[in-house]
Amino acid sequence: MKSPEKMGTIQIEVTNSCLRNCSNCTRFCGLHEKHFMMNMEQFKKAVDSLAGYDGIVGVMGGEPTLNPDFPEMIRYLHKARPSGKKSAFPVAPVRDFDRFLKDRWNNAVGAKRGLWSTFGKKYYENLEAIADIFPYQCLNDHQNASMHQALLIPRKELGIGDEEWIKLRDKCWIQNEWSASITPKGAFFCEVAAALDMLFDGPGGWPVEPGWWKRKPEDFGDQLKWCEYCSAALDVPRISGDKECDMVSAGIWEKIKERNAWKVRNNRCTVFDASGYDPEKYKYDYTNEPYLPNQDIRISKDTCMRFLYPRDIAVVLKNGAALPQGEKFHQISEEDAAGLDFSDWLLVIDGDISDITAEFLEHAVFNPGVLYFAGRGRLIFINKRASALAQCKKLPLELDLLTKLYPGAKRYNWKNHLTPDSILFSEKIAALKRHIQDCWRYRSGLLLKKLGLKK
Ligand code: SF4
Ligand code: SF4
Predict the structure, then answer these.
(1) Residue 86 scores a pLDDT above 90
(2) How far apart are CA 130 and CA 369, in angstroms?
(3) How confident is the model at residue 9 (pLDDT cuts 50, 70, 90)?
């Protein structure tokens, strides 16, 4: 076991409400009758208690963006914890978000703030602030196959004796590789223990006070009793996360079977037959195949389509411009645009733009906080939720007036044109750079092996 101080991340759990009910979820989504929402005061206390902690403070759920105070919470986190790597959401549109995620947001080195999310409407709505605040993001749409280990098969029901159990428990891969966490009920040495305390209405965790995270394993005390409910440290079956089914022991089933919870109501729980339990059957090497296999940390193209690409594009046409062809475009008047009477993105076209641009606007990820423009204002593309427009009562539709509203770092001049060729070109250059870096890493690895400095 590890002291939270030595962990790379400590999570603040702002809700256990989620958009999904993945199999064997570590927050037991689908088994709760009620959901919690951390309040602002609890969140501040949690952040303040972690002053001096060197790793990432994660905002997690469930789906954390569902907490109604999420925007205020993440602003507070940023203010209280301003150091570390800066966020890296480019102002340029991102055509290949999946690639971008792997290159930029999946790199935890030097980050002090992190977000764990499964997307959704609220993620989309808060994208500008999320992009400003979180240099590390673990985004997972959970729509790919990934083997989630059963967590609710206690060792006693499998006949594992005390001596063997203590050794297994102390090597628990989740506690050693993942995080400690804070819920509205206190601070915990392990994120799953924190979730078990919620699931079974436990006594709560340690007081959320400065330095709680410096406790060592010998100080974990009573909290270790949650391990007695948990099978993370054992060899037990796994189910693909996207099946939305849990496997639980007979004893746990007795405890939850009367619950008015989604997985119980919908027959999504299977009781594990512990007779003749043979751990060898369930051996699983997480070093070769992690809990979340490679495809699982990616998001599917479908997710991008539904959640991150512009959802609605209101268009103002000037000087004979034609309405772009595409399902998201619809024309509005200059008066409606000036009155901010549109729901999502606004495109102002002065003159002609090609169909390629229209296709591009529908299928790239844009930062809603950025003013995108091209051809000295022949094309303007902005989002109603931009923080730059928060105080704006009457939206100017001319580029020189708009640029006064947006800070320099949030303006993107789509140089040369109304087509995205220049962006596609820069994506190719970025891919080439990545390839050269990968080759360099591979070759230097070989060299180190040859010199006997690496196994
Ligand atoms: S996305 Fe899935 S695994 Fe993550 S909290 Fe929600 S239900 Fe659990
Ligand atoms: S056995 Fe469960 S509760 Fe105990 S440390 Fe491991 S994951 Fe946490």
Answers:
(1) no
(2) 11
(3) very high
Distance between CA 295 and CA 298 in Å, rounded? 5
For residue 20, report the distance from its CA to the centre of ligand 1, in Å: 6
281-304 per-position pLDDT tens digit: 998 765 555 555 454 455 666 666
Identify whether the C-beta of residue 231 lies closer than 8 Å to the C-beta of residue 150: yes
Report the SS3 class of residue 56: strand
CA atoms within 13 A on the CB side of 18: 25
Q: Can you tell me the distance from the alpha carbon of 267 to that of 86, in angstroms, rounded to the nearest whole number?
A: 45
Number of C-beta neighbours around residue 149 at 10 A: 24
Q: Check if 18 has its Cβ closer than 6 Å to any atom of ligand 1.
A: yes
Closest ligand to C-alpha of residue 229 is 2
What pLDDT does 420 receive? 47
Average pLDDT over residues 420-434: 57
| Minimum CA distance residue for ligand 1 atom 5 | 62
pLDDT tens per residue, range 263-282: 999 999 999 999 989 999 99
CATH number of 1-144+157-228: 3.20.20
Show Cβ contacts of residue 345 under 8 Å, excluding neighbours closer than 6 positions.
310, 311, 312, 313, 314, 361, 366, 368, 381, 382, 383, 384
In the chain, where the domains are located: 1-144+157-228, 309-419, 420-455
Position 293, amino acid: P
What angle, 0 to 180 degrees and rounded to 10, lies between the N-to-C axes of helices 70-80 and 40-49? 20
The residue among 360 and 45 whose pLDDT is bigger is: 45
In 3D space, the residue among 340, 360, 341, 358 whose CA is nearest the CA of residue 349 turns out to be 358
Query: Residue 4 and residue 188: Cα distance in Å, rounded?
Result: 9
Say yes or no: CB of residue 81 within 6 Å of ligand 1: no
- Which residues is 380 bridged to in the sheet? 348, 373
| End-to-end Cα spacing for the chain | 26
Q: How confident is the model at residue 419 (pLDDT cuts 50, 70, 90)?
A: very low
| CB of residue 188 inside a 6 A radius of ligand 2 | no
Out of 16, 22, 240, 263, mutate this one to test ligand 1's pocket (max ligand atoms within 8 Å of CB): namely 22
Residue minimizing CA distance to atom 5 of ligand 2: 175
pLDDT tens-digit readout, 208-266: 999 999 999 999 999 999 999 999 999 999 988 889 999 999 999 999 999 999 999 99
